[in-house]
TrEMBL record:
Pfam families registered for this protein in UniProt: AMP-binding, AMP-binding_C
Enzyme Commission (EC) number: 6.2.1.1
Organism lineage: Bacteria, Pseudomonadati, Pseudomonadota, Alphaproteobacteria, Rhodobacterales
Protein name, entry field: acetate--CoA ligase
Protein keywords: Acetylation, ATP-binding, Ligase, Nucleotide-binding
Domain AMP-binding enzyme C-terminal: 472-550
Length: 576
C-alpha cells in the first residue's frame, strides 16, 4: 500500500456549492420532493418532478444501439413512457406490491418498464439478460414473480419451457409488436395507453427493488430495498460521483446488476443528468468513440473494463478527444493502484474507487472529487456513514485501531440499507451484530482515515503464520508490464498450512513460459517479500468472473481443490 496521494482538488465552484448546502440524510431527503401526502416514490423523484419544474425537454437518455442507431429520449418522453407502462400493468390487474421481473438487454423498453412499475407501486427485480433458464426460474420462484418483461427470443428459450409450472406468473409482456401465445405484446399495449398516470403514493418503507446476490453455496439471496433508498441513491450520486444537473453521464454497468440499477438509472435521473446507454458489450474502440462523441463528463465503470483497456495499451486511445471528461469512477471489485495511475496517464484524470454492496444499496466509502487519492485505497466513508474495522468473536464485536486488519463494518440506519433477505430472517439477523452491519469484507483503516480493501473474509490466505490478502498480491503482480489481470488463492501445504498460488492473464505482445513465470515470481518477491509472494504462477487466457466483472476466486479454489463449485448462475458464459 502506497501512502502517495494524487491530489486533484475539486473546481472552486463545486467546493463552494457543497459548502453552502447542508449535509446529512435529513438534508438529502429535503433535496428530494416527496409526494403531497408524505409518500415517497422513486419514479416521481427520477422523472415527474423534473418535468413539473420545466426540465422536460432535457435529454434523459441517449440510447446507442448495437447497429449504430442513436435515439434520444427527453425527461418528458421517458416520463410519458413510464406512465403508459404503469397503465398497461393496471389494465392487466397488476396491483401495488406485486413483483415484476425484467429479462432484457439495455434497450429503451427496460428503462420505461422499470420506472413505470415503480410509479405503479410494483416491485422491480432485474435479471441479467445472459442468464440461462435455471437461474431465471430460480430467482423468479424465490421472488414470487407475477409479471415478466422480456423479449420473444428470451421468452422462447428461457421461460416458455417451464412457465406452466409457475401459475403465479400471470402476465408476460413481450417487447415489440408481436408476442407468442399466452403473452402480451408491449408495443401496441403502450401505444393505446395514456401518457398521464397518478403516481401511487408508496410509503418510504414499501418494497421497491429486489436484487439477487449469489453466495458460495445454496440458492441466491433476494436483497430487499425500499423506496426510501432513493434518498441515498440521489445523495451518493451527488457526493461520490460528482453528478450535477445537465451532466452527460455514462454508467457502463448492466441494469441486471445492482450498480446498473442504482447508478445506471435511479441516481442519475434523480440528479437530472443525461444518461448514455450503450446496448453493445465492451468494445475498446466503440467505448473510446462514445466517450469522445457523446462528450461524456462523468464516467462510472468497472476495474475489469479498465484492465481490458490497459491490456490494449495507451496507444489505442491516441487520437481521441477526452477533454469533456471531468470525473472518472470505478466499482465492482477493488481498484488496483496501477489502474488509478493509468487513468491519469491516458485521460488526464485518475479513477476514483468506491466501495459498496448489494446489501448496502448505495455507495458507502469513496474517493470523492474533493479528496486526494491514495492509489489502491477505497477512500473514506461518505457523510452519514459510520464505518469501522472490527474483530468478531462469538457474539462479541470489538472495534480495532488504525493499521489492523479486520472485518469492515457499518453502523446501521442509512436509507438504502437492505431491509431483509427475502424469506430468510435468520440469515439476515446473522449479518447484524453488536450494533454493526458486518460486510464480510476484510479491510484496514490508515491513520489518515482511508480504508484499504484486503479481501473477502473467506478469501484470506493463512501461510506460515502470515495472514495474506489476495488483493495485495494481485496488485503487485499487475504492476508488472506483462500482466493484465491476476487472481490469487491459497492452496493447502503440510508445512505452511497454505501457499499462495496466482493465476494471471497477459497483455498483448507477451508470451507465457517458464522464463516469464520466474520473472513474475521474482518481481512479486521483491515487492512483497518471500513469505507473501506466490510460489506458483499459472497463465490463463481468461479468468472466471461474474457477469458484473468480479473475478471468482472461490471458483478457482474449488476447481483447484476439487471442491463443490456452488452457485454458478452469475458466471460469465465464456469463463468456464
Amino acid at each position: 500500500m502506497t501512502p502517495q496521494f494524487i491530489s486533484k482538488p475539486a473546481p472552486q465552484d463545486a467546493t463552494r456549492r457543497r459548502q453552502q448546502q447542508p449535509t446529512g440524510w435529513e438534508a438529502a431527503r429535503r433535496r428530494l420532493q416527496g409526494l403531497a401526502d408524505g409518500g415517497l416514490n422513486i419514479a416521481h423523484e427520477a422523472l415527474d418532478r423534473h418535468v413539473a419544474a420545466g426540465h422536460g425537454d432535457q435529454a434523459a437518455l441517449i440510447w446507442l444501439g448495437k447497429d449504430g442507431t442513436r435515439h434520444v429520449l427527453s425527461y418528458r418522453d421517458l416520463a410519458a413512457d413510464a406512465a403508459r407502462f404503469a397503465h398497461v400493468l393496471r389494465a392487466h390487474g397488476v396491483t401495488r406490491g406485486e413483483r415484476l421481473f425484467l429479462l432484457a438487454g439495455r434497450i429503451p423498453a427496460l428503462y420505461a418498464a422499470t420506472l413505470g412499475a415503480l410509479k405503479a407501486g410494483v416491485v422491480v427485480s432485474p435479471l441479467f439478460a445472459a442468464f440461462g433458464p435455471e437461474p431465471v426460474r430460480a430467482r423468479m420462484e424465490i421472488g414470487a414473480a407475477s409479471v415478466l418483461v422480456t423479449t420473444a427470443a428470451h421468452y422462447k428459450r428461457k421461460v416458455a419451457p417451464w412457465r406452466a409450472e409457475m401459475p403465479g406468473l400471470k402476465l408476460v409482456l413481450i417487447v415489440g409488436n408481436d408476442a407468442p401465445e399466452g403473452c402480451v405484446a408491449l408495443g401496441p399495449a403502450m401505444a393505446a395507453a395514456s401518457e398521464h398516470f397518478d403516481t401511487v403514493s408508496t410509503d418510504p418503507e414499501d418494497m421497491a427493488l429486489l436484487h439477487f446476490t449469489s453466495g458460495t453455496t445454496g440458492l441466491p439471496k433476494g436483497v430487499v430495498h425500499v423506496h426510501q433508498a432513493v434518498v441515498a441513491h440521489s445523495e451518493t450520486g451527488r457526493l461520490a460521483l460528482d453528478l450535477r444537473p445537465g451532466d452527460v453521464y455514462w454508467c457502463t454497468a448492466d441494469p441486471g446488476w445492482v450498480t446498473g440499477m442504482s447508478y445506471g438509472i435511479i441516481s442519475p435521473l434523480c440528479n437530472r443528468v443525461t444518461m448514455v446507454v450503450d446496448e453493445a458489450e465492451f468494445d475498446l474502440e466503440r467505448w473510446y468513440a462514445i466517450l469522445e462523441n457523446e462528450r461524456v463528463q462523468v464516467w462510472y465503470t468497472a476495474p475489469t473494463a479498465i484492465r481490458m483497456m490497459m491490456r490494449a495499451g495507451p496507444k489505442a486511445a491516441e487520437g481521441h478527444d477526452f477533454s469533456a471528461l471531468r470525473f472518472l469512477a470505478s466499482v465492482g471489485e477493488p481498484l488496483n493502484a496501477e489502474c488509478v495511475l493509468w487513468g491519469q496517464q491516458v485521460f488526464g484524470l485518475p479513477f476514483h474507487d468506491n466501495w459498496w454492496q448489494s446489501e448496502t444499496g448505495g455507495i458507502m466509502i469513496a474517493n470523492t472529487a474533493e479528496m486526494g487519492i491514495k492509489p489502491g485505497a477505497m477512500g473514506k466513508p461518505l457523510p452519514g456513514i459510520e464505518a469501522g474495522i472490527v474483530q468478531v468473536e462469538g457474539e462479541s464485536v470489538t472495534e480495532l485501531p488504525d493499521g489492523e486488519i479486520g472485518e469492515l463494518a457499518l453502523r446501521p440506519g442509512w436509507p438504502s440499507m437492505m431491509r431483509e433477505y427475502l424469506g430468510q430472517p435468520e440469515r439476515y439477523a446473522k449479518v447484524f451484530k453488536g450494533g454493526w452491519y458486518l460486510t464480510g469484507d476484510l479491510a484496514m483503516r490508515d491513520p489518515d482515515g482511508y480504508f484499504w480493501f484486503v479481501g473477502r473474509a473467506d478469501d484470506l490466505i493463512k501461510s506460515a503464520g502470515h495472514l495474506i490478502g489476495p488483493f495485495e498480491v494481485e496488485s503487485a503482480l499487475i504492476e508488472h508490464e506483462a500482466v493484465a489481470e491476476a487472481a490469487v488463492i491459497g492452496v493447502p501445504d503440510e508445512t505452511a498450512g497454505e501457499l499462495v498460488k496466482a493465476f494471471v492473464t497477459l497483455k498483448a505482445g507477451f508470451e507465457a513460459g517458464d522464463a516469464l513465470e520466474r520473472e513474475l515470481r521474482g518481481h512479486a518477491r521483491k515487492r512483497l517479500g518471500p513469505a507473501v509472494a506466490p510460489r506458483e504462477i499459472v497463465f490463463r487466457e481468461k479468468l472466471p468472473r461474474t457477469r458484473s466483472g468480479k473475478i471468482m476466486r472461490r471458483l478457482l479454489r474449488a476447481r483447484e481443490l476439487g471442491l463443490p463449485e456452488g452457485d454458478l448462475s452469475t458466471l460469465e458464459g465464456d469463463s468456464k
